[in-house]
Amino acid sequence: MNFLLLTLTQNSLHIQEKAQNTLISEHTFPFSDFEFPKTAELLAAQIKELFPTATGAVFSEIVPEFYSENTNVTALNASIENLIKHFSELLNLPILTVSELEAATDLATAFKEKSEYLTWNLDYFGYTPGKEEYSVESLLTIGNGFMGLRGTVPEMTLSKEHYPATYIAGLYNEEKSEVAGQIVENEDFVNTPNNQYISIKVDGTDEWLTLEKATLHYLHRNLDLKTGLFSSHMIVEDSHQHQLKITAKKIVNMAKKNNYSIQYLIKPLNFSKDITVKTTTDGAVYNFNVERYRNLTAKHFHITQLLAEKNKAMIEVQTNQSKINVQQVATITGDFFGADTVKTSIGQEIIEQEITFYAEKNTTYTFEKQVQVKASIAKENWETPLLPATSFDSEFAESKHAWETLWKKSDIRVTGDLMSQKLLRIHTYHLLVSASPFNNNDLDVSVTARGLHGEAYRGHIFWDEIFILPFYVLHFPETAKQLLMYRYNRLGKAKENARESNYAGAMYPWQSGLDGSEDTQKLHLNPLNGQWGEDHSILQRHVSLAIAYNVWMYWNNSGDDQFIKEYGAEMLLEIANFWRSAATFDEMTNRYYIDKVMGPDEFHEAYPDSTESGLKNNAYTNLMVVWLFEELENILSLLDTQEQTELFNKTGITQEHLKKMEDIRKRLSIEVNEDGIIAQYEGYFDLKEIDWEKAKEKYGNIYRMDRILKAEGQSPDDYKVSKQADTLMLFYNLNKEKIDEILAELGYDLPEDYLEKNLLYYLNRTSHGSTLSRIVHAQLAEEVAFHDLSWKLYQEALYSDYQDIQGGTTAEGIHTGVMAATIYVTLTTYAGIDIKKNYLTIQPNLPQNWTEMIFNIDHKGIHYDLIVSKDSVQVCPSQDTTVIVQNHPYQLLANNVTTINY
């Protein structure tokens, strides 16, 4: 086993490669004026090239001269811990400190334990206020599906530097704002009162401790993904040189939807004096997370009650338009005060509670705050009295056990790749924070595009559900069903939306919030030129197809016929009826067309020089419509004659309508060129090409090519440029065999290699302006055996939020769609499972550096434990069944492990 010894001096990184105690090679990498993390990235690239076989490393203590000689680094933000973290992630290796090496009895075991820690923990060292800090807070968010708390330390308040927030699933409010000279209405995801604030003041000083004004010597924030525990460790010095060690722990109880707890430990390091602790219940907060929304109306609630007595405080607020009530009750306790010693003041919007006590040097004092949060949108929960929380430890024990249950169902274990393992767990964690089987099944909500982590997209629910739902379908079917009920409960509103636009059936909104109204904004800010322009994304009617697909996906995987009979068939029929009414017959071509839509691409809103928005015959939309009409037949066959009659009476859909759907299904139009390229929409081939190299040279980051073109006075409508996979999304949703069938039924004859040709054609014209784009392309690239391309795009998608590759979007909340999609592609593309067929089908295709995957899924009511390696699959089903491995059927016995070699 080869490992590296890394020694950092003031102007070089010296590396020794060792096998046990034998020196194999060594090298010195010089640098001048170390910049962090830029220099670390350059050094890591060189190390990977020179030492490709290393399995771990040890990092020596850093000499003081390193910080005095390199003016761009500080011991706060470039501590040895932070350097180890970054080098470990860049090299994809476990790295030990010298003390960890000395304590180890066996080096291999020490590296294994360090790897285990790294894949279950998220660590941040130092403090960089602003957008980078906002991103850290998003990734450190804790929650339980009902509420989410951003990953701030207790001393932080709402500002441009950092943003504590408390979000509740389904909590929306609509307000009017003046934009570009006109009044617009926007429905927003509401930031609720902040009960997390705690700070101290030492006797003899006149200011409360803040990160902005104090001298911060050390800050380490950790999120334990396994238990949902957030902790921060800080050494800080106020303006009078009082040094303190402050440790904070925070959990949202996964087992109890209403509870969160904070434990706050204070230790004076160089003094003994009176200390005053202050905690607040702050109703003065407002929405501030997204910079481009800050000029809009930001206050979404008014206070209806503020009460406090002894060690308790209560705030109740009501949203201004939606009239939703939120109540927060806080109880404070500690080992240095009693309830009678709490000094309370109640203002117009805030309750302040203070305790003054004498603190001895080097003694630790414990303060706890238990907060219970309720919202009237969860009606039964709102009306049920809650038992008071007792202590941080008891709340944490309950929550930890609940997390253990969730991880048993959802963890994917990858051998051979530390960072992929870590990122898959980060993604799984944040999905469980966004919706959980413990706390969502009685809520009328779905998963927002940014989880319970931030305010981007105003917390709305989009077509991202098509990427998100499969995670729950595979692991927590009851939660998937609840998320689909959010859509069923808004079917009436979707029918209203269709009628208002002169369509039949159900037309679900592009952006959905509280009641299922269309909540897409009418104007969009281009940050490159500061101008507001019209937003036509409402025309992305394919959101209804995403909902239909998820209904089918849930039913097809769970076998829940009862759901179909009670809810699903009605949704599919109404959505299909909408598309029937959207199709028009063209006697010239003897085919139907669908116009006035936008595809998933989003950059194209209209034809060049057109005064009307909307496009004709978007390939993704049309072929998914054909798929829907086909599947509708299968779904309706589940209903007996009486059930069908009742359904047709309820929906008003007739046999004539069904015959029309069948005709559309066989004659819907798409455009295909002589090379077998399926046009993104009719007329796409007439657009101009972009000089991509020139654009990259001029702008660097060209992800949002639409904004660049508009800032230059041009339009993306004129160019063959896509934000993300559009036509290619078909192959993410459906097996190629299914698409082949659809194309054949429509009468289109494409060459054998048309998928490869389409993949390369659109890859060369896609800017990946959405993080979802890479993961879709990664799956398709693997399907056509472009393994290196697949791996590159997959890795970019895995890292997209963690490294905030879009330059600040993670600050506004994590991307639930891409997090769920990376998990789905890991299982379906690399482990090779196919859940769309009657029997579980497995065709493993592990990446080169992965040796094994261990995971479990539910399929057709059967629970499977699986281990997939390069040459075998181990399967243990909960019932007798058949699985298909590498195209061969195998009979399996319940609760027996079967090893299948290939």
Automatic annotation (TrEMBL):
The keyword Glycosyltransferase applies. Substrate binds at residues 463-464, 723-724. Keywords: Glycosyltransferase, Hydrolase, Transferase. Gene3D superfamilies: 1.50.10.10, Glycoside hydrolase, family 65, N-terminal domain, Maltose phosphorylase, domain 3. The active site is at residue 602. Residues 836-891 form the Glycoside hydrolase family 65 C-terminal domain. GO terms for molecular function: carbohydrate binding; glycosyltransferase activity; hydrolase activity, hydrolyzing O-glycosyl compounds. The keyword Transferase applies. Belongs to the glycosyl hydrolase 65 family. This is Glycosyl hydrolase. The lineage of its organism: Bacteria, Bacillati, Bacillota, Bacilli, Lactobacillales.
